[in-house]
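Hey, I'm writing a tutorial for new members on how sequence and structure tokens pair up, and I'd like a real worked example in the thread rather than a made-up one. If someone can provide the structure for the chain below, I'll link this post from the tutorial.
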Amino acid sequence: MGETDRPESVYLDSNCFIDWAQGTGSAREAESMLRAAKAGYVRLYTSTVTLAEARGTTASVHRLHIRTLLQEPYITLVEVTRRVGLIANDITAEKPKIKGLDAIHLGCAILARAEVYVSRNFRDFAPGDVCQGVLLRTPFEFGGAGLFPASGAD
């Protein structure tokens, strides 16, 4: 794995895209990851489930922003397949608090061989844990604070 704040591959949970679109929560950190991916510094992954989950508020502008962003070539969408389902099932057996779509997202990160899984949803698992080789972290700025000046990722 690369440096702690400069991994080679990152899986972003749906809430990162919601924050980015709405400008709330971890928007700055999500923006940093998106800019780093666009510049070729990191490979970004998310699940096709994100298309359903990351709608932001009911405001159509947020939905449009997210849909447009998820079509960018620097974001790889991981399909939810039988194999992902089996990995997710193993996760729920190993860590019973992780269930449902959280297990699916983590299964997609594992299938994609992402180094880091980024989410702010840590009710059921702890940042710093490692699950099948993937480090679980709360949102952070790629390369450390201030590497990329704030602006739109699109």
